[in-house]
């Protein structure tokens, strides 16, 4: 079933003048972790050894004992003392005295490690301005062989206990650091994008390291901001549901579809934000798919009453699951 194709009518006329390069929910830049790119050139290899050593130690404890840092970083004690002060001043690390003096990575330090890996692999050559912020991520423009988007996952940093208990990729671990939670979210999203692209309209994945993903930069408008003409509403909804059908056939349920993670352009629709993607053979897959269908159908019916028909959402979800979905007008 061909799930790609252009939306009905001239969407360029109705999407409005405000077009953004990558979609992200309700951009509020004040919450973003600071951009560390400007400080990267001043860091030495030994600084990254120390940051990596702390990262390694956080696999075992939330706060890494200062006494363990020479072992974990493979630096001398004198080198650790010097580098530790630098990293604390830059706020790449933070320190806490409990029964011992402990340190942990901040998200700025974790960002620096991911950026260093991307630079070493020639994935990222330049760092641009922020593109937006999602519920649990920050997105920046980066330069690679062409302009790209860099997404940092932020799951678990400010409300760690609540987040990791609610995510099935962390809930089975007795000790789970926020960096593990964010990294697993990035890995899950990247795996989903690699599986789905190009058969499903998702951002093309380029590279992934730790909690960060480099992906294609998209042009268009977030569905929540798009002002569709009445005759276009059902057709755009059809496009979204067909993408869900193709994704399900390819092996994934999005599991968090809403008007904030669908992008509309003259070329069609793009689904993004896949960290909660669930395999189609998961025991809860059909329930999650039905929820996705209900969310997006409900949005269209609320925003475009009278232009989108009342449908049997259960029947629509069944059709999406078995690949027989054609249009909401059939239901």
């Amino acid at each position: 079933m061909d799930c790609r194709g252009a939306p009905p009518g001239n969407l360029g006329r109705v999407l409005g003048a405000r077009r953004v390069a990558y979609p992200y929910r309700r951009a509020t830049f004040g919450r973003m972790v600071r951009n560390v790119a400007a400080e990267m050139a001043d860091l030495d290899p030994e600084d990254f050894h120390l940051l990596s050593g702390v990262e390694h130690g956080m696999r075992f404890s939330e706060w890494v004992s200062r006494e363990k840092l020479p072992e974990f970083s493979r630096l001398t004690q004198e080198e650790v003392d010097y580098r530790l002060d630098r990293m604390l001043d830059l706020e790449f690390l933070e320190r806490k005295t409990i029964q011992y003096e402990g340190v942990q990575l901040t998200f700025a330090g974790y960002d620096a490690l991911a950026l260093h890996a991307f630079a070493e692999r020639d994935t990222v050559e330049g760092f641009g301005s922020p593109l937006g912020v999602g519920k649990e991520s920050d997105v920046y423009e980066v330069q690679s062989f062409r302009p790209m988007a860099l997404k940092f996952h932020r799951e678990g940093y400010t409300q760690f206990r609540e987040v990791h208990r609610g995510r099935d990729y962390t809930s089975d671990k007795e000790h789970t650091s926020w960096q593990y939670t964010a990294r697993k979210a990035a890995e899950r999203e990247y795996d989903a994008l690699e599986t789905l692209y190009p058969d499903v309209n998702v951002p093309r994945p380029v590279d992934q390291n730790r909690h960060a993903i480099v992906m294609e930069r998209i042009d268009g408008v977030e569905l929540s901001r798009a002002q569709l003409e009445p005759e276009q509403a059902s057709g755009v909804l059809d496009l979204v549901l067909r993408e869900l059908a193709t994704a399900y056939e390819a092996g994934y349920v999005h599991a968090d579809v809403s008007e904030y993670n669908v992008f509309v352009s003259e070329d069609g629709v793009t689904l993004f934000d896949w960290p909660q993607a669930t395999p189609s053979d998961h025991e809860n897959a059909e329930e999650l798919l039905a929820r996705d269908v209900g969310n997006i159908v409900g949005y269209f019916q609320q925003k475009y009453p009278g232009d989108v028909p009342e449908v049997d959402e259960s029947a629509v979800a069944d059709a999406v699951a078995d690949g027989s979905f054609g249009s909401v007008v059939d239901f």
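The chain has three domains: 11-19+220-330, 29-33+109-216, 37-105. Residues 1-6, 11-31, 160-174 have pLDDT under 50 and may be disordered.
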